[in-house]
C-alpha cells in the first residue's frame, strides 16, 4: 500500500508502526540551524527523525524534539526516532554503551529504531547480539541495520534470534538495488532510503524533469514519490523550512506504472556513498 499522507506508517515485522516519511540530519552540525529544521519538520507534520552517533548532532536533535513536543502538544510516543551505532563501537559491551550515550545526548528514555551503521567485517554480529539484548529488555522498539547487502543480511540471520526489522541503504534512481529490495521484501525487512535525492545530483535529469513537469511537481518530489511507490521508507535531508514542506508534498499525486518503470531504467548502479563491500572506516 502506498502512503496517502505524511503520517502514514508501515508495520514492521514485530508490529511496530514506522512512518513512511521522515527527516534526515546527516552532516548538519549541532546548533540552532538544526534545532530549527527539526522543529519545522515536526510542526509541519513529520513524525520520524533519523540521526546517528557519527553525525555528532544528537544533542541538538534531542533539544528540538523536546521543544517541539511542548510547542505542538505532542507526546514522545507520537514521534519515531532513529539513531545508529558507529563502527568504532561495534562489539557487544561497546554497542550497549553506545546506545546509552546516544540516549543521554538525545535526552530520551528509548529509541524507536536503533541501527548498526555499517557492516564492519568480524564486528557486526557481536553488535547485533547487543541490539537483540536491548530489544528483549524493551529498551528499544525496533532494531535493524544500515548499508547491509544480501550476504551481510544472510550472515546476520544465520545466528540471529531476531531478524532485522529495517535495512537503511543508499537508494535513488541511479542505484535502484532491485535484488536487495526484493530480498528485503521476501524476508519482511523494511527497506529505507538514505540520500534519496543523490545529494542533489539528479535534479537536472531530463527524464525526471519531464515526469515532474507532467505532474506539476519538482524532480525531488517525483523521486520521493517513486521511493514510496516501491514500498521504501524515505528520509530526505533539508534544513530549509520551504524545502522541508516541499519534500513532504508527495501525497497528492501518483506516478503511473510506466513512469515508475522509466525511472527504474535510469539505474547505473552508481553510488554517492561508500560501497558496503569495500569501505575502510
Q: Any overview of this molecule?
A:
This protein is α/β, with parallel strands linked by helices and about 280 residues long. The protein has one domain (about 15-265): TIM Barrel, CATH 3.20.20.100. The chain contains ten helices and ten strands. The chain has helices at about 30-45, 60-70, 90-105, 125-135, 150-160, 180-185, 205-215, 220-230, 240-245, 255-265, and strands at about 10, 15-20, 25, 50, 80-85, 110-115, 140-145, 165-170, 190-195, 235. Strands 3-4-5-6-7-8-9-10 form an eight-stranded parallel beta sheet. Strands 1-2 form a two-stranded antiparallel sheet. β4 (about 50), α2 (about 60-70) and β5 (about 80-85) form a beta-alpha-beta unit. α1 (about 30-45) crosses α2 (about 60-70). The mean pLDDT is about 95.
Throw out a few tags for this protein:
281 residues; TIM Barrel; alpha/beta
Amino acid at each position: 500500500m502506498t502512503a496517502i499522507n505524511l503520517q502514514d506508517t508501515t508495520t514492521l515485522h514485530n508490529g511496530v508502526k514506522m512512518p513512511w516519511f521522515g527527516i534526515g540530519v546527516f552532516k548538519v552540525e549541532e546548533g540552532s540551524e538544526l534545532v530549527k529544521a527539526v522543529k519545522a519538520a515536526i510542526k509541519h507534520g513529520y513524525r520520524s527523525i533519523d540521526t546517528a552517533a557519527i553525525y555528532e548532532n544528537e544533542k541538538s536533535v534531542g533539544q528540538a524534539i523536546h521543544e517541539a513536543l511542548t510547542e505542538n502538544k505532542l507526546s514522545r510516543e507520537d514521534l519515531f526516532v532513529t539513531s545508529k551505532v558507529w563502527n568504532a563501537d561495534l562489539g557487544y559491551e561497546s554497542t550497549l554503551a553506545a546506545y546509552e550515550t546516544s540516549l543521554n545526548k538525545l535526552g530520551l528514555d528509548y529509541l524507536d529504531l536503533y541501527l548498526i551503521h555499517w557492516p564492519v567485517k568480524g564486528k557486526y554480529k557481536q553488535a547485533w547480539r547487543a541490539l537483540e539484548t536491548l530489544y528483549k529488555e524493551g529498551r528499544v522498539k525496533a532494531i535493524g541495520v544500515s548499508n547491509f547487502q544480501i550476504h551481510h543480511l544472510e550472515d546476520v540471520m544465520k545466528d540471529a534470534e531476531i531478524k532485522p526489522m529495517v535495512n537503511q541503504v543508499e537508494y535513488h534512481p541511479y542505484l535502484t538495488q532491485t535484488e536487495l529490495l526484493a530480498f528485503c521484501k521476501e524476508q519482511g525487512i523494511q527497506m529505507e532510503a538514505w540520500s534519496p535525492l543523490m545529494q542533489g545530483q539528479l535534479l537536472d535529469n531530463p527524464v525526471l524533469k519531464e515526469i515532474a513537469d507532467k505532474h506539476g511537481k519538482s524532480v525531488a518530489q517525483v523521486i520521493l514519490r517513486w521511493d514510496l511507490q516501491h514500498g521504501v521508507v524515505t528520509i530526505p535531508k533539508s534544513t530549509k523550512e520551504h524545502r522541508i514542506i516541499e519534500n513532504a508534498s508527495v501525497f497528492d499525486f501518483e506516478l503511473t506504472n510506466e513512469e515508475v518503470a522509466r525511472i527504474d531504467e535510469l539505474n547505473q548502479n552508481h553510488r554517492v556513498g561508500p560501497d558496503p563491500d569495500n569501505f575502510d572506516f
